[in-house]
Amino acid sequence: MLIKEVIARYVRDSRGEKTIAVSVNGCVTIAPSGKSTGKYEAKPYNVSLEQDIKFLHGLNLSLNVNYFEDLFKIEKIVNGKIGANSLFALESSIMKALASEKGKELWEILNPALDLSVMKLPRILSNTLGGGAHSHSNSIEKEKPDFQEFLVTCNADPSRALEINTLAYEEARQILKTLFGQEPIKNDENAWASSLSNEQALEVMKDVQENIFETSGVHIDIGLDVASSQFFKHGIYEYLNQNKIRTPRIQVRFIAELIKKYNLFYVEDPLDEEDFGRHAELLSLINKKCLIVGDDLTTTNPERLKKAIKEKAINGIIVKPNQIGSLLKVHEVMMLAKKNKIYTIVSHRSGESVDNTIADLAFAWQADFIKTPVIGRERLAKVKRLVEIENNLRLSSNPRFKR
Question: If you ran DSSP here, which 8-state letter would residue 381 be given?
Fold first, then answer.
């Protein structure tokens, strides 16, 4: 495929903030943007969004790209001239254009060797209650949970998971409405915000878990994104909710106790982004009964992941393509994680659009999970794309779905 045309412009994301959209031969990708960002993430733009757009708009690449691996040609040309958001949008649009020309799905271009007889669909991990950096309201700012996300997942294909995770979301709404006597508000990821403490929020999640099982017979697992670097200051964890301070040693014990008490399935960024050692201590302490997941710790960076592997710090990793930009490096991270038996969780960002690229990426490279809420058109777009992939596989009489 010859790259004939590159068009770049800015659009508004789900928070109303500017982000980049790149079109290649008429195929468009919109880059997301994060609010809770790790210090080791690649810069979203080289100098600025405007400068990246100026560089990319009308860029004459005049290259032939026929395989995923050919993206190295692109990176040789644009390396150091655009940021991670722009590179992700550019490379994804190139892959979409190639898929369009060949009459294939995007996931087929990303991984043409995928064995559909043994493939899996990623489990959907959904934010249900929110706190931390994603929840802002004058009425709850000083009382909101310190933990950033309270999550649900069930072991089901996307169509069924969409139904169950939505039920969990509505069940949480009803519980909060009963507790506070009014409709709860949504945060910037559409999770329910409140003035609950961290433990009170977990009690609500436990009630949601029990009620969903009673009404549907489906067991949902619950988890946390602690995002602890957001409140780690001067060597201690400063919990604003209930005004508590915990040292790193106590933080490890505290998270381990929560895992045991609430039978948590998943805990993301339980310790500061610099602290590989304490992550390893926690993982050892809980004896792999829960996923201890790196995000700010690893930032979709192969070198950070290698360090985490060496120090046995995690058994799960968040993969956010725009943290690193290069799809080649995203693929490297995914394959390195799988080789070392680390679960992969492809994730949305807080500033999103209806772009559904990460759904194809998660399926193509066989991620274990995709982390995205099931409420709001920007988040739902990713889930709907997975449901579409699932339905297409069923219609093709894929052996995976034979009864």
Answer: H
The pTM of this model reads 0.95
The CATH superfamily label for domain 123-401 reads Enolase-like C-terminal domain (3.20.20.120)
Burial class (CB in 10 A: 0-12, 13-18, 19+), 62: exposed
Beta bridge partners of 193: 130, 185
Element (H, E) at 96: helix 84-102
**Catalytic site residues?**
189, 320
pLDDT tens-digit readout, 350-364: 899 999 999 999 999
The CATH number of domain 6-110, selected from 2.60.40.3080, 3.40.470.10, 3.30.390.10, 3.20.20.70? 3.30.390.10
**Helices and strands (H, E) in the chain, number of each type:** 13, 16
The total number of residues shown for the chain amounts to 403
Between CA 192 and CA 186 the distance in angstroms is: 5
Domain boundaries, the chain: 6-110, 123-401
Residue 241's pLDDT band, with cuts at 50, 70 and 90, is: confident
Q: Which residues face 351 on adjacent strands?
A: 33
Q: What is the mean pLDDT of residues 23-28?
A: 98
Pairing of strands 18-24, 6-12: antiparallel
Handedness of CA 17, 18, 23, 26 (dihedral sign): positive
Give the separation between CA 289 and CA 280, rounded to whole angstroms. 14
Q: Which residue has the tokens 């400068």?
A: 51
- Pull the structure tokens for residue 366: 């066989």
